[in-house]
Specification:
Blueprint lengths: L14 H13 L5 E10 L4 E9 L9 E3 L4 H9 L3 E3 L2 H4 L5 H9 L3 E9 L2 E10 L7 H38 L8 H16 L9 H10 L12 H4 L7 H8 L1 H15 L6 H12 L20 H16 L10 H13 L5 H8 L2 H10 L13
Antiparallel strand pairs: 1-2, 1-6, 2-3, 4-5, 5-6
Helix pairs in contact: 1-5, 6-7, 6-12, 6-14, 6-15, 7-11, 10-11, 11-12, 12-13, 13-14
Pfam family, one: HD_5
Keywords: Hydrolase
InterPro entries: Cyclic_di-GMP/3'3'-cGAMP_PDE, GAF-like_dom_sf, HD/PDEase_dom, HD_GYP_dom
Length: 380
Amino acid sequence: MTSFQPLHSVTSQSLTGKLQGFHEALLADYPHICRLACAIYDKPTDVLKTFINSTRQGHAIAGYEVKLHDTPSLLHLANHQQSRVIDDISAEIHGGSVHSDWLLEQGYMSSFTVPIIRQNQFLGFVFIDSVEKDSFTPSIQRDLIMRCASICDAIANELAAAHLLVATASAIRSIANLRDFETGMHLTRMAELSKLIARNLPAHFGLSDEDIEHIYLFSPLHDIGKIGIPDAILLKAGRLTDSERQIMQTHVQKGVDMIDSILADFNLIEANDARIMRNIIAFHHEYLDGSGYPFGLKGEQVPIEARIVTVADIFDALTHKRPYKKSWSVENSLTELHQMVEQGKIDDDCVTALANSLNAAQHIVTTYCDSQEPASNPGY
């Protein structure tokens, strides 16, 4: 059996690290700039969400999302590809929303907002804050726009690479004549549930918005290796025999091999987001007591991103109909997850994060419900 091991360390500098380095260099000329942050835009959902930041004063806002069309001032900047200066935040910004209340609490005095536009597509914003009023003169604005181009390029390139990986894996799945092994709604639920759990984990896990975005993007690829499993097993209407289960379990290594090949082809094997993708695919069937497969990892050997996806995947399987079972209620499914925690199989913090977001979990289950459930056998 392969000795593939979890990739806990970052193999290349993260975007957060790059932004912090950019901020450090900027301080030599502009010591009053106390914060740089980037929010990225998801066009299908119209959601603008926090992504990376470098904060020298105050505390960073994290896990924040807002509909772009609910923020007319930012929508105008995005539509017209314009920057914006606020010379006196305390005079021009009024409380009443989560973001404006947070901004006023930090003591920032002025700000400069720059849209990220690549190939005429709006990708998000860079927010630059200062501890002084009237910090952003026209000449400073021009200089900052030029200097921000490098970090905007890095953000655009990494997002493009991540979406390319997802699109490539999805295309492979589509052309493999897999029919109903996974529905689009299952994949959407996996992304939403994984993000929900990740956002509600305790702070000691140290998941940044950048990490959470990658978990959100890559969690639907967890079972990509199933494209190499024969339909007679993959689509079997009933529980698998022992020999069939052994074949089913090979989908993990098949998925790892497939993704490694894709990463190598795109020269992305050392990319930071590749670590999260590979860990999700390789370890989402591991149990904390060592009884999972294919590597029999225990406890902290299982990366947190894999533990998150494991809980999301089991919860989704429980709450939706399968050929051999009816769908369970959210409450009964959570009871089953808690029992698995007591057995030492899955992560208590991940299950607690899901349980503490019961209404949101129910919303995901009901909103993204399949009209016809997938025939795939999960192979647990």
